[in-house]
Amino acid sequence: MSFEYAPAPESRSVVTIESSYGLFIDGDFVDPASGAYFKTINPATEEVLAEISEANDVDVDRAVTAARRAYERTWSKLSGRERAKYLFRIARLIQERSRELAVLETLDNGKPIREARDVDLPLVAAHFFYYAGWADKLDHAGLGPNPRALGVAAQVIPWNFPLLMLSWKIAPALAAGNTVVLKPAETTSLTALWFADICRQADLPAGVVNIVTGGGETGRALVEHGDVNKIAFTGSTQVGRAIAAAAAGTSKKLTLELGGKAANIIFDDAPIDQAIEGIVSGIFFNQGHVCCAGSRLLVQENVHDEVLAALKQRLTTLRLGDPMDKNTDIGAINSSEQLGRITELANAGDSEGAIRWSPACDLPDRGFWYPPTVFTGVTQAHRIAREEIFGPVLSVLTFRTPAEAVEKANNTPYGLSAGIWTEKGSRILQMAQQLRAGVVWANTFNRFDPTSPFGGYKESGYGREGGRPGLLAYLTTGAER
Amino acid sequence: MSERIDVRRTAKLFIAGAFPRSESGRTYEVNDHLGAFVANAALASRKDARDAVVAARAAFPKWSAATAYNRGQVLYRVAELLEGRVEQFVSEVRAAEGVTAKRATAQVTAAIDRWVWYAGWADKYAQVVGSSNPVAGPYFNFSVPEPTGVVAILAPQESSLLGLVSTLAPVLASGNAAVVVAARLMPLPAVSLTEVLATSDVPAGVVNLLTGSADEIGPWLASHAAVNAIDLAGADEDLAIILEREAAGTLKRVLRPTREDWKTDPGLQRLSQWVEIKTVWHPIGG
């Protein structure tokens, strides 16, 4: 027996989207020198939402110049106490406008409104609130007295959590006394442009935050600009490598938060019902567009069948469809390019001999969609066990002993996150010690908090965001300069 | 009566706790600061570098899993053994660097004290850089620093012992394994240090020493997938750029060369450079 849900759509009347947007430079929206624009669409409907400016070298240079001027004339002269109050204002403005921002995020990104509303937006406000309080306490951050800001930070963020990634970048940078030029992802610029309006409402001095929109070339121009002191990038490992190589020979400080291929490890004594929820949120949260997604499920062999049966049963209850519907669990894939990548890798799973399963589910006619997918019979050599899919595709492998689980979990160039499910405390702590990953979730998964450092081992990048380490990434001691 | 002819030492590499010659069979001439011949040092090759990485990789699990108390004692024991060889190191540093006995003594004793400083940090730095995080929810959440893995060190070219110790000890204190390329023109204090390490309690493979050219060996270490991080202290400006680019291929943690006065208080900078912050979450509830 199944229950039909009545539609419960969130209203989009809370946002008014203009037909086109300029770049936010030095406190004003300006037309791009490039004269070029690109369209941003709603991935759930393919409806064009707005035209977005494509910044070129000249635009990026204007933005960096504005950030430098603001750093030297205004922001670095302001006391930490005053900087803090601007950030507290921004946190409050985000709370006040969170419904509007959540709707906008869902329209532009395709994620379920329930997630934008209940996960993204509360975390965005919390991030600003947390780092606001650091601004006048930098002497206590662990670098000794009078640590200094780096200067102008170039920040490039991905499309999976657009406003949340913005907050992870901008909040600590401003708290530490830097000014920023931020480039949102090409497919999800809108909430960053709304954030520019929040900066205006907060009376943030002109040039402290600049938003340049565009694609990969815009990002390259920004991180390679000679007058930036810090690069913070979240995105693919491939682009991260190119940025690290380009920064060689400069004095730019780098923070890179890159790909992942996390193992979510289920022991036979795990609380199975809770573990199933953790597996689902681990890989199907945000359509699997999560760098720390639990994309490799490692199940102890003797409970494999039981776990898979329960998991499949649970997946049949997930609701895929209109992201604006408050009952939707799985939204749209962010772009046709991403859908192509997911499809290609999943097809490689078929051709390499893994067994595919998806619940019966109707995909909408328009927009970009991929059903929740589980591959069993996966070996460590399969591409779907090695490469980041960044979609709702789970690869299931088995193990017999804790040592084998560690061996398999660590058998990847990545090292961003991992999950452990067992009722045995000593085993949790031993596994947590041996897993080479920056975040380990035990009997939970995909939890985030501004006080909790986040970032990878190995080729998942370096540096941490969140907590005190996230602040240190934007500071230097006097001696280091 | 004729003067006694002294017994010279063959300067060799230090890999996996053993003292091999270079597999390439090559050596190079090491002179003192006046240009007089002192010894032939092994001219390490790509193969030697790879052997050293394999040895470091193999030693890493056990060394990183040793208790912090144990690592602290092992580092302290290095200081103990060095203390008994002050004369030898003073004469080697003098020959290499051409400094006065007073300055050489100051460097050697500073190097010994540096081991003691880092020995003490082994069981304390996690308390200083780690944290318990007050997340907004019913979760126990803590962050701890862990060693990043195998660290390649291009030892400073201008400070044959103190510079070397100042780069090596922080790598070891947090539980990393090291592959060190000694200062090219003055490798002998480094070779002598490995002879101390071999008879201390540092497990085989935790420290590996290559003598020779950073220009030649550096790129192999910077691009090696089993090396997690690289300290470019001993690279000149051009080499540093080349190696940082190479290191980007595997996203190594890179410490760029800076002007350092090795005599000053090192602070936590180098110690913090070679650790990863790991954060663990667990729900709170019945």
In CATH's first tier, which class of the largest domain in chain A applies? Alpha Beta
| Radius of gyration over C-alpha positions of chain A, nearest whole angstrom | 22 Å
Rg over CA atoms of chain B: 20 Å
- The average pLDDT value of chain B, as a whole number, equals 97
For the record, the CATH architecture of the largest domain in chain A stands as 3-Layer(aba) Sandwich
- Kindly state the mean pLDDT of chain A as a whole number? 97
Largest sheet of chain B: 5 strands, parallel
**Category from helices, strands and their pairing of chain A:** alpha/beta
How many strand segments of chain A? Answer: 20
CATH H-level homologous superfamily name of the largest domain in chain A = Aldehyde Dehydrogenase, Chain A, domain 1
Distance separating the two termini of chain B = 88 Å
The helix fraction of chain A, in percent, is 25-40%
Task: Outline the low-pLDDT stretches of chain A.
Answer: none
- Helix and strand content put the structural class of chain B at alpha/beta
CATH architecture of chain B: 3-Layer(aba) Sandwich
